[in-house]
Amino acid sequence: MQWSHELDRAQPIVVACREGHAFSQMAAAQLRAEGFDARVLAGGYTAWTDASLPLVAKTALDRLTPHRPSIWVTRRRPKIDRVACPWLIRRFIDPSACFLYVDPPEVVAVAHETGAIPFDIEGIEISHDGERCSFDTLLKIFGLEREPGLARLALIVRGADTARPDMAPEAAGLHAMSLGLSALSGDDDHGMIARGFVLYDALFAWARFAAQERHNWVPVEDPAEARAAW
Question: Is the residue at 84 inside a domain?
C-alpha cells in the first residue's frame, strides 16, 4: 500500500469498511503482510453506527480539514484548554495535525498567512461560548459531544479552565497538574503538549473504563491483627 509508510508500526491498526467484509479484509491482510498489527472492525461502520458509537461529522472534516496534515494555530504558553484541544484533534480528528503557538496578537494574521485553523482566541469559531471552553466547541462542531467519555472529560476541562472546580471532582487536580506541567515546560510549548497528552490519555481512559473503580486501604486497628498480618 502506497500510504502504509505513514502509519505508526508501534500502534495496532483497525481497518473498517461499510460492513467489515472484502475491502477491510483485503486492507488488513496487506498491512499484516507488511508487518503491521492490523485487525478488522467487526460489522464495519454499520455495526459501529448501530451501537450508537461516535462518528466525527464529515461535513466539519470537509470544511475545516480538507487537507492533511491540517495546521492549527493558537496562543503560546498552553496550560489547559490549549492542550486539551490539540489532544482531541490528534486523537479523533487528524492524527497528523500540526500546531503553531504564536504571540496572542499574531494568531489571526498567522492563520491568514498559513491557512491554519485558529482556536481558543476571542472572535473566532473555535473559542469559548459562555461558560463552555474551546474544547466543548470542538466537540460540538465535530459531533463528538455525545460520546460519554469525552462528555465527562469536557466537564473536567471546563471546571479546570474556568476556575469552577465544583463542576467535577477531578477539575482541581487537572488544574494543579496542568500548572505544574507548564512550570516544568517553560517556553517549550510542544514539550508541554507532549506531556499533557499523557495526562489526557489517562483521564479519557479513566472516564471510559475505570471511573467506577475505588481504592481504599483500611489500616488494621488491633495490634494483634497487625502482627498476624505481617
Answer: yes
Q: Which domain holds residue 28?
A: 10-50
pLDDT digits (tens, 9 = 90+) for 101-128: 999 999 999 999 999 999 999 999 999 9
In total, the chain counts a number of residues equal to 230
Cα 189–Cα 7–Cα 196 angle in degrees, nearest 5: 25
pTM: 0.86
**Residue 53 neighbours by CB under 8 Å, 6+ apart:** 147
pLDDT tier, 32 (very low <50, low <70, confident <90, very high otherwise)? very high
Q: Is residue 164 part of a domain?
A: yes
Asked whether residue 41 falls in the same domain as residue 107, the answer is: no
- Using DSSP's 3-state secondary structure scheme, residue 203 falls into helix
Q: How far is CA 206 from the centre of its chain?
A: 13
**Which residue bears the cell 498552553?**
78
